[in-house]
Specification:
The chain is an alpha+beta fold.
Length: 433
């Protein structure tokens, strides 16, 4: 659950309207369901840089839609619309209800609003449906040039040029200089990237352990170092700290809403019990009065209408008593459901983090083995990544933004973010004196 999906802001107004119409109980229930829609499924980042992510052909999304069910006064999922979709080559989404919607180059906020409005118009509802969109798979980016494995790669939020370079297998230097020296260059570059990946893996593992333990902050090990120095280490730790705080806030919000719902139900149950007790006394009095009137009726001292009225009054009171008992039963059932939801929420948080921690540990083991192999290769080549001239090759990263042409290609730094659809071209130069 790393990042949040988007939910149309217009539904906030609808929830407030519901609160005024039906009171705090319905408001809390509706709010809880909306937050559950936001939190369900593994959350993924929707932003590959500093700007809001814009959809394009090939993006895969998960759509979740909820409607307000007036008869039960709560939000319910619209399964006919909710599900996985792929942005078509012409930049449109095809929905079973609502038709084709153009999404190419649009941010998630705009697309969510458009879908909500289209669905509202199609079904003729008073209130617009709530729509949440999550990008589950970004369209690919491309790496060309002097790399070992050029081609298309799945885009990832926050991926940098240097990381894309590593995904493509690192540099493939073509030159007339000694082949062993060039092999050492490649091995040294891979060695450095592996050390960076291991550092990030250890930092991520520390964050997961803190989440499993329920700690208020991450305890980073002082034994973990970064090949690029203390500043790079601090930056990597800051990224995981931001993820940790974001996930903790989202979890606390879900727990708080469940606790609030339980408090509201407890108050409701207590009120119903008090009403039931008072009504029980009235029922007993009505039964006593009916028995007295029956005796007088046998003696001919009261009219039949008086006896009938007394029976009707007793029937009405007993009916109200049954309604109160039913309402208390339903409230207690909802209280049990809230307890189960709270337990499931906490259990899922721990189990998901534990599974993720196992994957990180497995990745670290593989990287450790690779690290040892690379160290041995570099040491065998003389312990230094230098060619016969004593100079390192120059690596130039050239980026063509998505939708651009060769004329739009620019030289970028290794920390530049790669967006879906971008084309990265690697140029390696060995200068021989």
């Amino acid at each position: 659950m790393e990042h949040k999906a988007h939910l149309s802001v217009q539904n906030d107004a609808f929830v407030m309207t519901t609160a005024r119409m039906w009171g705090p109980s319905a408001f809390v229930a509706a709010s809880l369901l909306l937050i559950t829609i936001l939190a369900c499924g593994p959350a993924r980042a929707q932003d590959t840089g500093s700007e809001a992510y814009r959809l394009g052909a090939g993006d895969q999304i998960e759509l979740r839609v909820v409607l307000w069910a007036e008869e039960v006064r709560r939000y319910e999922a619209w399964s006919a619309i909710s599900g996985a979709y792929t942005v078509q080559p012409d930049g449109t989404l095809h929905l079973p209800v609502g038709g084709s919607i153009s999404v190419d180059g649009r941010i998630l906020d705009d697309v969510s609003n458009s879908i909500s409005q289209a669905l509202q118009a199609q079904i003729g509802s008073v209130e617009s449906p709530g729509v949440a969109i999550e990008v589950t798979a970004h369209r690919p980016f491309f790496v060309l040039g002097q790399v070992n494995a050029p081609g298309a790669f799945p885009a990832q939020p926050g991926l940098t040029v240097l990381q894309a370079f590593a995904l493509a297998g690192g540099a493939r230097v073509t030159s007339a200089v000694n082949g062993n020296a060039l092999s050492s260059l490649r091995d040294s570059g891979s060695l450095r990237q592996t050390r960076i990946d291991m550092t990030r893996g250890h930092i991520r593992a520390a964050r997961l352990r803190a989440e499993i333990a329920g700690d208020g902050e991450i305890a980073f090990s002082d034994k973990v170092t970064h090949p690029d120095g203390a500043d790079a280490l601090a930056a990597a730790q800051a990224e995981e700290t931001a993820v940790f705080e974001s996930r903790a806030t989202a979890f606390s919000l879900e727990v708080a809403n469940l606790d609030e719902l339980k408090l509201l139900l407890s108050t409701e149950i207590a009120s119903l019990e008090e009403k039931s007790n008072r009504l029980g006394e009235q029922v007993e009095l009505a039964r006593t009065e009916l028995a007295r009137i029956n005796q007088l009726r046998e003696s001919g001292l009261v009219a039949v209408t008086q006896q009938t009225n007394a029976q009707r009054q007793l029937f009405d009171l007993e009916s109200q008593e049954l309604d109160l008992q039913t309402a208390m039963f339903r409230s207690r059932q909802r209280m049990k459901e809230a307890d189960r939801d709270l337990l499931a929420l906490r259990t899922k948080r721990v189990s998901d983090n534990a599974a993720e921690l196992q994957n990180v540990a497995a990745d670290l083991e593989q990287m450790q083995a690779r690290l040892q192999t690379l160290r041995a290769l570099v040491a065998e080549a003389g312990g230094a990544a230098l060619d016969v001239t004593g100079q390192m090759p120059e690596t130039e990263f050239r980026l063509t933004p998505a939708g651009g042409t060769a004329a739009d290609e620019i030289v970028v730094g290794p920390e530049r973010r790669i967006a879906p659809g971008d084309t990265l071209r690697i140029v390696q130069r060995l200068t021989l004196d």
